[in-house]
Design brief:
Length: 423
């Protein structure tokens, strides 16, 4: 029996050999966000439970079953690890009065926590980045989010991600629809599972989201919200579609798309990839004009979306988008006291030119050091022995080209390293 301590189920280490994929993705994403004029906001990972209850809704999977909530043993506060980013972002915007005479285009990134059954694409600690545009009422902002996501797929070289959109209308429309929907489900009460029965009066729209095969055809035939929309919502939705279409983004209207959280109105959308199997949604969002008022701010319209980074990486894999492996440019091999002294200085000089340099630590024979140089993935081994130290030269070996090693005067050698010449 091993008594080593393991990471918590569903919470993963990201190891050094995986990290370059993350960093490369993050770099592209950050460049894309800057290109669209969004600024980063960082909020704490822990918030009051009441924030999530108010923002996400009490009768949602997240709040009912998935939230890591706990009592602060020192003062009894009810706290939770954030299950998503929007609530905290909006809390911070209200707290710091960021909408005073202003609009905001914000983004966030980081770990989120949900107590779900771990499987591919579904973890207990996972990572999202998301954006929130606050203070924008018009449909051109909903469209901006759709068009900018399509731009990201292009920047990443991804294909086969499809857009589904729907509208939830305003709260009046949803109220009218709710009544019709409850009526429909009551007529088919014998088909409802326990979750659906529980939600029948508290959150009947969520029943549309059910994956239970036994309920599918009944849900398919249920009344559609589109019939309850007022003119403004119809117009809003039409404009979003018109702009998206004009910008070359194709989509499918999915009347069953209601999103898992309570706070949405009007436009909702999901980007779905067939590469992902059951966990097919990589990006989801929409408009949430009621949320800011709901958590105590001066009401203001808003919309946003969030993406799952692990799922995005899975799609990158499936599309065989390669990322370069992060390896040092130079591994400095040295033996002898004078050589060691020189190695410190050369390493410093090379780093100042922008090269990534590992100076061998721990001594050992040239042969064993050369093995380590090779294993490090470095392009060059740069070798300093007694002779190089005495003459002020460097011996270079390109570890990837198979060329023979060569000894050069210091400045020539450094030039060759900076230019990353093949031999
Ligand atoms: P799902 O229907 O897959 O449970 P969701 O509706 O709960 O997703 P959102 O709250 O909208 O998801 O989160 C936005 C995105 O974050 C999802 O589209 C997905 O890419 C990612 N995501 C959500 N939950 C997880 C999880 N447990 N593990 C990994 N990624 C997740
Ligand atoms: Mg979920």
């Amino acid at each position: 029996m091993s008594n080593t301590i393991q990471a918590i189920r569903g919470m993963n280490d990201i190891l050094p050999e995986q990290i370059h994929r993350w960093q490369q993705l993050e770099a592209i994403v950050q460049e894309w966000l800057a290109a669209w004029g969004y600024r980063e906001i960082r909020t704490p990972i822990v918030e009051q439970v009441s924030l999530f209850k108010r923002a996400i809704g009490e009768v949602t999977d997240i709040v009912e079953k998935e939230m890591y909530a706990f009592t602060d043993s020192l003062n009894g506060d009810q706290l939770a690890l954030r299950p998503e980013g929007t609530a905290a972002c909006v809390r911070a915007v209200i707290q710091h009065n960021l909408l005073y005479n202003a609009t905001q285009r914000l983004w966030y990134a980081g770990p989120m926590f949900r107590h779900e059954r771990p499987q591919k694409g579904r973890y207990r600690q996972f990572h999202q980045f998301g954006i929130e545009a606050l203070g924008f009422a018009d449909p051109d902002m909903d469209a901006e989010h759709i068009v900018m996501t399509a731009d990201l797929w292009q920047r990443l070289g991804l294909h086969g991600i499809e857009l589904e959109i729907n509208t939830l209308g305003d709260s009046d429309a949803r109220l009218r629809y709710r009544t019709r929907l409850i009526g429909w489900f009551e007529q088919h009460a014998d088909l409802l599972d326990d979750d659906a029965k529980r939600r029948l009066h508290s959150n009947p729209l969520r029943i549309l989201d059910s994956k239970n095969p036994a309920m599918q055809s009944m849900i398919e035939a249920a009344p559609k919200l589109l019939d309850d929309l007022n003119d403004r919502s119809v117009q809003h939705f039409a404009t979003v579609q018109r702009i998206a279409g004009a910008q070359g983004v194709s989509f499918r209207i999915n009347p069953r798309l209601v999103r898992g959280l309570d706070y949405y109105n009007d436009t909702v959308f999901e980007w779905v990839s067939h590469h992902l199997g059951a966990q097919s949604t990589v990006c989801a969002g929409g408009r949430y004009d009621g949320l800011i008022g709901q958590i105590g701010g001066k009401p203001a319209p808003a919309c946003g979306f969030a993406m799952g980074i692990e799922r995005l990486l899975d799609i990158l894999d499936a599309c065989q988008v390669q990322s370069p492996v992060a390896a040092p440019d130079v591994y400095l091999v040295h033996a002898g006291e004078a050589a060691e002294q020189m190695a410190w200085g050369i390493a410093r000089d090379l780093r100042q030119t922008g090269l990534h340099v590992i100076r061998h630590c721990g001594g050992g024979s040239f042969k064993s050091q050369m093995k380590k140089a090779d294993a490090s993935g470095a392009l060059y081994a740069c070798i300093i022995g007694d002779e190089e130290a005495a003459t002020g030269s460097l011996t270079l070996k390109n570890l990837r080209s198979g060329a023979a090693q060569t000894t050069l005067p210091l400045t020539d050698a450094i030039t060759r390293l900076i230019n990353k010449e093949r031999s």
